Amino acid sequence: MNTRSFCVALLITAVIMVPTAGCTTAGGNAPTSASSKPEKPDITVAAIPAVDLAGLYIAQDKGLFARQGLHVIIEKIPSSQAIIADQLKGQVDISAGSYVAYISAQAAGGRFRVLAEASTLAPNTRVLVIAGTSPITTIAELAGKKIGVNGTNSIGTLLISALLSAHGISTGKVAFITDPGGFPAMPRQLQDGDWGAAFLAEPYVTAAGEEYGEQVLADLDQGSVLNLPIDGYLATQAWTQQHPKTAAAFTRAIEQGQAIANSDASAVKAAMAHYDNLPPQVTAAIALTGYPVGPVVEASIQRVATAMLEFGILGREDTTEVEQRTLVGSMVGPGS
Asked: Among 120, 152, 237, 271, which residue carries the largest CB count within 10 Å?
């Protein structure tokens, strides 16, 4: 088992602003023209605090949003599920989070549009951790235990279900417990002893050993979910239709941030150190995920919906939409 480290601030609701419009950065496009000026230049983006969203933080840190005529406020959230209701009410412009929550919302009648892909699963970026003093040493020993996750029926639930299934263990043998504090609060909660294991994402994976001596029980990037798409940037379809130039400007900036994240690991680590207040020993060791660049690939996100159906996060009533690919298609296609 690998020892990972933890030194992350537990503040969930930090609000961060990008530099003001008009600043210049290397590698960015020219400032937005009058014809493409966003209808809504001031927008709020709700985001989970994780390395998966480095493209967002880099775009913010390097003034890429400002160059597109946008002033962005990022509101940190514990999970995607925590923000969907507010987003449907129009209280949040764009969200950055797990596809699982939004595919579930789409199946329930919500109407969302994937503006850009954020991340794909990579080794050691989503894991199960145990307390350093835990007697658990195998996946089989999780049977009958509680597992902490950051969201109910979340990407964590999906990845853990796939892991348990691969080891012949029914998900009914474990109890998923949602921590409303999300990733920042979970390593400490694991220490209290009520959970057998906890689901963590980077940088909280790396950080958990240094603060608490917690250890990795299993890397979740394996088997049927290997390289699975994890997160995206989403808006409601109504919002996108009302603000097409704003959506386009946001997407352009994110694409630039994603490209930098893919080519410059130091930029990712610097952005995470800045916005998550991480010490050098954590940022030096964090595992990085994949950052897709280019148009949204429907076939990739379809893998998530298929896995959700397989492991019971989507119900039997959703089978036809999943198998005919219309559920994900309604979130990606030109008609969405």
From this structure: 271
